[in-house]
């Protein structure tokens, strides 16, 4: 189980591109046997406490805090929202 970043709204300046996380894949550490990202289709976004969207991504599980746990100490994200296909809205986990 894991996740990938599909859009990075943090590193947008040309001199910041070296830190852009778009396309990077990560393993979830909350699972007993961490497996690689399995091309999950659960869309999520990570926000800061001002509700600015920092990162978008896809996860293997729509009920996992791993992307938030990974990004919180790096960029101060405080919220993860998963996209609900039925309502076509992002909902906070």
Describe this protein's structure.
Keywords: Plasmid. The protein has a six-stranded antiparallel β-sheet with strand order 2-1-4-3-5-6, with helices on one face. The model has no long low-confidence stretch (mean pLDDT 85). It has one domain. The two termini are 17 Å apart. Helices cover 11% and strands 35% of the residues. By secondary structure, it is mainly β.
Distance between the termini: 17 Å
Number of helices: 1
What class do helices, strands and sheet pairing give? mainly beta
Mean pLDDT: 85
Radius of gyration: 13 Å
Number of strands: 6
Short account of what is shown:
This protein is mainly β.
Layout: helices, strands, pairs:
Layout: E1 2-8, E2 25-27, E3 42-47, E4 53-59, H1 66-75, E5 79-84, E6 89-92
Antiparallel strand pairs: 1-2, 1-4, 3-4, 3-5, 5-6
